[in-house]
TrEMBL record:
Belongs to the copper type II ascorbate-dependent monooxygenase family. It is a single-pass type II membrane protein. It comes from the Eukaryota. Residues 586-610 are annotated as: Disordered. It is found in: Cytoplasmic vesicle, Secretory vesicle, Chromaffin granule lumen; Cytoplasmic vesicle, Secretory vesicle, Chromaffin granule membrane. One of its GO terms (molecular function) is L-ascorbic acid binding. It comes from Neomonachus schauinslandi (Hawaiian monk seal). This is Dopamine beta-hydroxylase. The lineage of its organism: Eukaryota, Metazoa, Chordata, Craniata, Vertebrata. PANTHER family: DOPAMINE BETA HYDROXYLASE RELATED, DOPAMINE BETA-HYDROXYLASE. Its cofactor is Cu(2+). Catalyzes the hydroxylation of dopamine to noradrenaline (also known as norepinephrine), and is thus vital for regulation of these neurotransmitters. The keyword Protein transport does not apply. It catalyses: dopamine + 2 L-ascorbate + O2 = (R)-noradrenaline + 2 monodehydro-L-ascorbate radical + H2O. InterPro entries: Cu2_ascorb_mOase-like_C (IPR014784), Cu2_ascorb_mOase_CS-1 (IPR020611), Cu2_ascorb_mOase_CS-2 (IPR014783), Cu2_ascorb_mOase_N (IPR000323), Cu2_ascorb_mOase_N_sf (IPR036939), Cu2_monoox_C (IPR024548), DBH-like (IPR000945), DOH_DOMON (IPR045266).
Length: 610
């Protein structure tokens, strides 16, 4: 910025005074929702080099997010904001820029060509702009819902944050086009649940599962796998909390991490440390799928409820664990070493309940498919009342966390709880879901599921760039629709999922042939993926498939941990009847609103904002 720069000591003094006053006001505004150690407990690096650091906190009483953006090396300005999928077009922005003489800050939006415009409603409120020894610090706030059609609605679930670096002055805000800037995106869960931290046991121990000082590959995306093992004679324990370990300096490269326990059916697993897709990886690697911990960028420590813990170790439990770390290195930085991982905190004093993990959604089968060139095709999986009636204890179970999962075309995931034919509450919902950002999320409130309840998981897919149908399956180019719910007390029910009845799908293929030129082979030797690959995708075949999934009977998988179904008839089951659905929340917007002055704020970088 073309403004006088104060000395380091002067900057530190001015910054300390201004921020001290501001933080007193902020902590009061947040009404003790922030942990005592920091008024901004959540922190991420926005860019791969770590030169833009975002911290934030949430006031649920005010329905407002408070942001702190630290710009280490300010050039001619910076923009920050949110958009539907991380694009810089049609984005909701706050922009700091200079015309060469003065600095300005304003609430803005970009159109479909990336051109930036000043918003007629200024909802990003700049609270402070200060130079510090670390760089320029911007403090601002933004309501969840501004009732402005140009603004992004901040909701539960994934938020795609966008940023841009301005390297030269601009005569006006409208002269800026995002296509000419150095830009990027970062995904986070902005609205963290406002829940209290449970008390931890006095006999708690910790164990670090981390990569062994590896050299991060200089490629955009790497999934690194590392096999380790528990000590000999490690008895049964409860995991009560876990937290990330990120090597200092690599905060912008470590995207997400998971710890899996291997199956107990093998006595041993070979040691391995390398890319998960390496040709040198052991075959047994695929048998380490039981999730013990999962972390993604922006998440803090994960706590189990005081009455429950996740069991590991002891008889019937494998000693072998697999750590998987996703490195996101778009600049292909070389020579960076890493020992990141997850620290497990556990106790030998077992809690009252074992926590369990249950799979909801769709069975991994090609009978569930998405036509090509679809922008919002929905598939739904059921955990039926018949299964919960049979498998859940009379007092029910209590879901406290959830991890949603699809492959590459997933765009939205929601699980609803229904009772007596009526949807009662949302278990978990992510309307801006990204397959590139998956984490175990603590729920804002515990959801209790009783025998006879129905759990309905729906996934929305976008196959706009595909020429063939996308079928369900394990491959990355196939699809999944899963919600891994974490609950207590643990039951024998480990998987409660469905798929359309295969016989009815064959009737669909026969029907398609009646209205086309017998293009789909319905002979016994034809596989379902090949049948879908030969469907002529027109409005008829698309609409009929969508209708089939909405009325045809289902095959239920009401499975124990041994992969054996509970006793009963599970094929050709009717779809659960839902007579009442929950209404979508509607914004509480006033009929008319007094407009703020439509002009940017003049900013003095050396002192407080004008």
């Amino acid at each position: 910025m073309q403004v006088p720069s104060p000395s380091m000591r002067e900057a530190a003094s001015m910054y300390g005074t201004a921020v001290a006053v501001f933080l007193v006001i902020l902590v009061a505004a947040l009404q003790s929702s922030a942990p005592p150690e920091s008024p901004f407990p959540y922190r991420i690096s926005l860019d791969p080099e770590g030169s833009l650091e975002l911290s934030w906190n949430i006031s649920y009483t005010q329905e407002t997010v408070y942001f702190q953006l630290l710009v280490q090396e300010l050039k001619a300005g910076v923009l920050f904001g949110m958009s539907d999928r991380g694009e810089l077009e049609n984005a909701d922005l706050v922009v700091l820029w200079t015309d060469g003489d003065n600095a300005y800050c304003g609430d803005a939006w970009s159109d479909q060509w990336g051109q930036i415009h000043l918003d007629s409603q200024q909802d990003y409120q700049l609270l402070q702009a200060q130079r510090t020894p670390e760089g320029l610090c911007l403090l601002f706030k933004r309501p969840f819902d501004t009732c402005d059609p140009k603004d992004y609605l901040i909701e539960d679930g994934t938020v795609h944050l966008v940023y841009g670096i301005l390297e030269e002055p601009f005569g006006s805000l409208e002269a800026i086009n995002t296509s000419a800037l150095q830009t990027g995106l970062q995904r986070v869960q902005l609205l963290k649940p406002n829940i209290s931290v449970p008390a931890l046991p006095s006999d708690m121990h910790s164990m670090e599962i981390h990569t062994p000082d590896i050299l991060i590959p200089s490629q955009k995306t790497t999934y690194w796998c590392y096999i380790t093992e528990l000590p000999d004679g490690f008895s049964r324990h409860h995991i009560v909390m876990y937290e990330p370990i990120v090597t200092k300096g690599n905060e912008a490269l470590v995207h997400h991490m998971e710890v899996f326990q291997c199956t107990a059916q093998f006595e041993s697993f070979p040691q391995f440390s390398g890319p998960c897709d390496s040709k040198m990886k052991p075959d047994h690697l695929n048998y380490c799928r039981h999730v013990l911990a999962a972390w993604a960028l922006g998440a803090k420590a994960f706590y189990y409820p005081e009455e429950a813990g996740l069991a590991f170790g002891g008889p019937g439990s494998s000693r072998y664990l697999r750590l998987e770390v996703h490195y996101h290195n778009p600049l292909k930085i070389q020579g960076r070493r890493d020992s990141s991982g997850i620290r497990l905190h556990y106790t030998a004093t077992l809690r009252r309940f074992d926590a369990g993990i249950m799979e909801l959604g769709l069975v991994y089968t090609p009978v569930m498919a998405i036509p090509p060139q679809e922008t919002a095709f929905v598939l739904t999986g059921y955990c039926t009342d018949k299964c919960t009636q049979l498998a859940l204890p009379p007092s029910g179970i209590h879901i406290f966390a959830s991890q949603l999962h699809t492959h590459l075309t997933g765009r939205k995931v929601v699980t609803m709880l229904a009772r007596d034919g009526r949807e009662r509450e949302v278990v978990n919902r992510d309307d801006h879901y990204s397959p590139h950002f998956q984490e175990i999320r603590m729920l804002k409130k515990i959801v209790s599921v009783h025998p006879g309840d129905v759990l309905i998981t729906s996934c929305t897919y976008n196959t706009g760039d595909r020429k063939l149908a996308t079928v369900g399956g394990f491959g990355i180019l196939e699809e999944m629709c899963v919600n891994y719910v974490h609950y207590y007390p643990q039951t024998q029910l480990e998987l409660c999922k469905s798929a359309v009845d295969p016989g009815f799908l064959q009737k669909y293929f026969h029907l398609v042939n009646r209205f086309n030129e017998e293009e789909v082979c319905t002979c016994p030797q034809a596989s379902v993926p090949k049948q879908f690959a030969s469907v002529p995708w027109n409005s008829f075949s698309r609409d009929v498939l969508r209708a089939l999934y909405g009325f045809a009977p289902i095959s239920m998988h009401c499975n124990k941990s041994s992969a054996v179904r509970f006793q009963g008839e599970w094929n050709r089951q009717p779809l659960p009847e839902i007579i009442s659905k929950l209404e979508e929340p509607t914004p509480r917007c006033p009929a008319s609103r007094v407009q703020s002055p439509t002009r940017p704020t003049v900013v003095s970088i050396g002192g407080s904002k004008s």
